[in-house]
Design goal:
The protein has one domain: 2-Layer Sandwich (Beta Polymerase, domain 2), CATH 3.30.460.10. The chain is 39% helix and 20% strand. It has a six-stranded mixed beta sheet with strand order 3-4-5-2-1-6. A hairpin with a 5-residue loop joins strand 3 and strand 4. Helix 2 runs antiparallel to helix 3. It starts with a helix and ends with a helix.
Length: 158
């Protein structure tokens, strides 16, 4: 790789997130560095809270998962609300210089998933969330502390 390309890949501006060395891009999804990925995960959490999702958590699974760095889990109250919350994540992704890689929904809208490569988002109907218990599955990950104002908004707006 030429020095110019190395310097370009290593440099970063607020409008262009830093890419990991050796990162690959698939279908336009960007691979973010750890700091940018955590910021993106927290931005997703904030968007979900703004869309009235409940029990939103962020789990740092770097070193635990070979395929992603962060998992965001939230619960929704209806298929319409969960779908709208998932749609709004495109705006968050754009603001962080990335976009969704894959979206998966079930026919009953009990579990919606958006894979942004660095961050995977799971929105559940509360009963499905309890059944699949991803928090337990990823218990080796580290829970990321949400900003205090976000936690207050999540609990206040219930």
């Amino acid at each position: 790789m030429s020095e110019t390309k190395k310097n370009k890949a290593a440099s970063s501006t607020p409008s262009e997130p830093r890419l990991r060395a050796g990162a690959t891009v698939s279908d336009g999804a960007r691979i973010l560095d750890s700091e940018a990925a955590e910021s993106f995960a927290l931005g997703i959490a904030e968007s979900l809270v703004d869309d009235k999702c409940t029990d939103v958590i962020v789990i740092d699974v770097r070193g635990v998962s070979p395929v992603t760095g962060y998992i965001v889990i939230g619960s929704g109250t209806s298929a319409r609300q969960m779908g709208a919350a998932l749609d709004h994540l495109d705006e968050v992704a754009e603001a962080h210089g990335t976009k969704v890689f894959k979206v998966s929904t079930d026919n009953d809208s009990l579990w919606l998933l958006a894979d942004f490569v660095d961050v995977v988002v799971h929105l559940f109907e509360p009963g499905a969330r309890a059944h699949y218990d991803l928090e337990m599955l990823w218990s080796d990950g580290k829970r990321v502390q949400l900003p205090e104002d976000l936690v207050k908004r999540m609990h206040y707006e219930r």
